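Minutes, project check-in
Item: structure for the 448-residue chain
Input as provided by the requester:
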Amino acid sequence: MAGISRYNHFQSWRDGNHIAYNARTGAVALMTDENYACYEQIKRKLAGEPEPSFDAKEKELVSQLQYGGFVLSGDFDEREDLTFRHLMNRYDQTTLGLVIAPTMACNMACEYCYEADKKGRMSAEIVETILDFVEKRARNLQLVDINWYGGEPLLAMDIIEDITESMQDLAEEYKFTCSSSMISNGYLLTKEIVDKLRELKVSMIQITLDGPARIHNRKRPLKNGRESYDTIVENIKYATTKMAIGMRVNVDKSFTEDTIAEMLCELKDAELQDRVGIYFGLLEPATSVCANISESCYNNADFSKEEIKFYRLLLEHGFRIEKLPSPVSVFCMSQDVNSFLIDPGGNLYRCFNHVGNREKSMGNIKSNIDYNHPNFTGLFRFNPFLDGDCKDCAILPVCMGGCPSRRADRNLKREDLCESWKHNLPQMLEIIALSRQQQAKTAAKEQT
């Protein structure tokens, strides 16, 4: 017998429509008032009749709703399916995720940076150990996914080249795919570097731009005291012609709607409006090193309210909305048994917030992996399906319990353990729907 998904979200919208969203499948649709009334009738029938009878219109709508996961077929158990997929991805050995920091050195002096130890460059010995680590697992691999990190990874471009070229040789020999992305401050991302990264098959780079020029230059100056904003924006212009660029804006209490609007106007002047995806990150005092910024940081619930305002500004200024409530199997690498963050000394970590803090390391890549190490189990052990609040939550599929580090490392309130979708999903769905409409109108104009 068919049933109604526990992960459905319906809300009235404009022009006689309803927004329909299912958190398990990620399906988003607009329904007319007439179809929504029909859905409510279907729902009543499914709840009250062992073998409900549907008319032709209801049958057609049931078919469409089943396609999007809003109505379930037969005895399908959503929670059991999610649990299976979660566990399958946790213990998957066919994908190896590597976050590699070839250096912890950086050319910037950001006021909120949590990385205490900013020294160190990866030796040839560690490079060879990483390659050996991959080759020992290569026969079982389908994908090696590398994310270059730091410090500023572009300060060690030669190491990136060496590892990538050798990894590509391994991929060809053992028939696995190798994908690559990067997190960079963007200052060294010259045309020559972009072209080289494209040759190395780096397909996406995340770059932080913290507000308009006057604020970014204060928050993210170069170590020599010089400004960085103009160079980064010029570099982004060319980079967007070669690869995807995601722009992260770290938000604290100093940001206002006027601040964001000023930044968006600058980006429009730089003709980046249709070329970058912008998202807003919650600036957090994730470690003791950055405890000095704690008073200027939002808690998660308050940040989610500000986030709505900022995404509305993106929409008003004609930028596309790329933040979507997409279903995930695991929240992050800390829940994946086959993902590791490797620092220049070969030390292994389970979280971006921990890199550089040897007390948080789970060992070294030169030794056998210790899956009983407390710095592994401390983050890996959390299972959202064993948590009373998480397993019954209607948005569980899009967050899988949220950040394990927040749970393990910080004494936070329950509301601050949840992702912002928990606090602002209805408002964000409206913004996403408007963005889709905006994109559809633009596409229609371009076709005519």
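Outcome recorded: The domain at 93-448 is CATH 3.20.20.70 (TIM Barrel).
No further action items on this chain.
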